[in-house]
Amino acid sequence: MSHRYRTPLKDVRGLGSAKEGTHHFIVQRLTAIALVVLACWFLYFVIDLMQADYLTASDAVAKPWNATLLIAFLVAMFWHAQLGMQVIIEDYVHSHGVALFFQVVVRFVCILGALASAFAVVLIALGN
User: Per residue in 55-86, pLDDT tens?
Assistant: First the structure.
């Protein structure tokens, strides 16, 4: 009988903000802005190398500014992809265990991809 007198506030207590949404939103927007700038540079870089042979392309990647911008592009791309996949998993996977599994897999794949890509650029830049 007493449950009839409870307010709807009881049902929503503890379901408030996790206090991380704003940070996630800002980081996702910052990586998107960085990707717009870096993608323009990358397209220019790739179009400029379309007719180049392997040695010319590897010499272009080995230049410090190009290697730095290429690594920045790769890191921003994988970071932005991980943030986007996180939102998709949070919105569409309703089982907590499955969602946690996919979050871990996505984060692992993105970190591994960013490290492997950066390592490849460093190897090319160092001439190995």
Answer: 999 999 999 999 999 999 999 999 999 999 99
The amino acid that residue 1 corresponds to is M
Segment 17-61, tens digit of pLDDT: 666 778 989 999 999 999 999 999 999 999 999 999 999 999 999
Question: Can you give the length of the chain in residues?
Answer: 128
Cβ–Cβ contacts within 10 Å for residue 96, how many? 8
Distance CA 20, CA 96 (A): 18
Alpha-carbon distances, residue 5 vs 1, 30, 58 (angstroms): 8, 47, 74
Q: How much is the pTM?
A: 0.82
CB neighbour class for 108 (10 Å; exposed up to 12, middle 13-18, buried from 19): exposed
Instruction: At 99, list the tokens.
Output: 């969602």
Which helix (DSSP H) or strand (DSSP E) does residue 8 occupy?
none
3-state SS string over 25-53?
HHHHHHHHHHHHHHHHHHHHHHHHCCCCC
